[in-house]
Amino acid sequence: xxxxxxxxxxxxxxxxxxxxxxxxxxxxxxxxxxxxxxxxxxxxxxxxxxxxxxxxxxxxxxxxxxxxxxxxxxxxxxxxxxxxxxxxxxxxxxxxxxxxxxxxxxxxxxxxxxxxxxxxxxxxxxxxxxxxxxxxxxxxxxxxxxxxxxxxxxxxxxxxxxxxxxxxxxxxxxxxxxxxxxxxxxxxxxxxxxxxxxxxxxxxxxxxxxxxxxxxxxxxxxxxxxxxxxxxxxxxxxxxxxxxxxxxxxxxxxxxxxxxxxxxxxxxxxxxxxxxxxxxxxxxxxxxxxxxxxxxxxxxxxxxxxxxxxxxxxxxxxxxxxxxxxxxxxxxxxxxxxxxxxxxxxxxxxxxxxxxxxxxxxxxxxxx
Length: 368
Hints:
By secondary structure, the protein is of the alpha/beta class. The protein has helices at 20-28, 47-52, 61-67, 79-82, 101-109, 131-148, 178-189, 201-210, 222-230, 252-257, 306-335, 337-340, 353-359, and strands spanning 2-5, 32-36, 56-58, 70-72, 90-93, 113-116, 170-174, 193-198, 215-219, 234-237, 263-266, 287-290, 293-296, 343-346, 349-350.
């Protein structure tokens, strides 16, 4: 199989979808790997490192897409990339289609085989390809939240950890999944007063156990949610419904009721955001202010730390890339139900129910 690795074009996105070790594994399996010039530069990987392990460096994205049977990316395709797609081409990347109707319709119209990292799901319900980036985003959310609380960014001028004689900040985390847990680890480690809300009682017991009562765990309902948000200096939105658009749990009136200069970091923004006041931003212009509350809503948060993120991501994606390349689509799906759940679009058909529900498009089952 011919595998193409294009350079990411999303603003300030410096991750790359394959490392030299991944190239070596694919070449050893008899496959051809094409890497766009400087695709790994932002992650500290020079072209010569790819060449050493057997990759062919091509100068343009057009060449990458035209050569490839399967394109492996990090982020969803953007408008300039639509015209490069060809019918039947496998696209393996984060898609987040429930937040982007235009992308969904383009993939359907161009009859792309779209496999989304974020909907590959094991039988136990876990999301192995989303987990490492959720961990990065969760830990990064506290770091960015600290910056949002600085007065130069419109914040109330609060140090998250406090100092002796001065109380630490209050952090509310909405959602106790991978990103929420990682946000809590960092916030607790810095000495903040942390509250975590989730709708799953077993999850709350687990959180209480691992944090040794250093965090307050609350059942997420309307009353607890409102009280926790209104009393917080920093709110971190970490809500996830696999494959679906994020529910708007944080209302405009919640934001308006917070103390001026408080902050919101919406990790769920790549799925549409979990706050009514959230809108996607970029790393070069990451924050904006609504009702005196500083919002950070960057849709590719892990792109801020590409060296860490690239290796964390490719550690988990490479086995699936190898399966698709070595076995072909049909056999790979037949032998791995988790991978098959990642299929979102196929030959003009929408195959992900959550995306279908988001846009009122018919969902069709594809059998292999």
